[in-house]
Amino acid sequence: MAKYRQREPLAWGIILIVIGLVFLLANINVNIWDFIARLWPLVLIAWGAWKLYFGIKEKQEKSQT
Amino acid sequence: MEEKVIIQKKPPKSPGLAGVLSFFIPGTGALYNAQILKGLVFLIIFSGLVTIQQHGEAQPFLGLLLAAFYIYQIIDAVQTSKSINRLALKGEKEEKEEKVEEFPQAVKAGSVFWGAILMAVGGILLLANFEVISYGTLFDFWPLVVIVIGIKLIADYFSKK
Question: What is the value of pTM for the model shown?
């Protein structure tokens, strides 16, 4: 449980970078919201990649011990 | 006579109030729980999701995304204030302060199965959004959901054995 909490700064880092990029692009570009409306499943993919990465990592740690 | 002075480090939170705050303005429940970063990020994400609604031609999942996020942040505010109270009670007895977790464990936990599923669903929806495949054909494949759940149950049975 403690090990899960260590991951929180990583998650916040990713979230803040994405939000910062979106609003930065919205300020300088034009149609970023149209793109986000199409690209939002990337959030699911990123979440899936997160789970896959840590899932494989946990399995490896379990098999090592 | 022994007099006990109870000093509470953190005042207990009211889960109801946190929920009501989140209900009216998303993110304020987290702010009330002293999760400043989370509250602000929730507020920004919510406004972003509202902005998206007018863009992208009539996607069936955009509204659902907004609804899911809106409900999630209400439940999260209530659960967080409950766990703050729980930890405050524990802290008085054990003098040990723990930090409240900012994401539910189900969100953070690693899982090969769910990771693969999420990436597959994300990829399919991405293709549908760029009109490589149509949402019409996508919905025809709904029985796959039942099949995948079945496979998961069978796989769990054999991996525990």
Answer: 0.79
